Amino acid sequence: MNGSGLQAKEQNSQIKSRERVALHGEVFTAEREIKAMCDLVKDETERIESRFLEPACGDGNFLAEILGRKLSVVSRQYAKALGDWEKYSLVALTSLYGIDIMQDNAQGCRDRLYTLWLTEYERHCGGDSSAEQKEEAGRSARFILKRNILCGNALSLKEVDEKQNDTDRPIIFSEWSLVGENLKRRDFAFNSLVNQDFANEAGSLFSDLGDEAEIFSPVKEFPLIHYRRVYEQSE
Question: Of 168, 163, 155, 172, nearest to 102 (Cα)?
Answer without folding.
Answer: 163
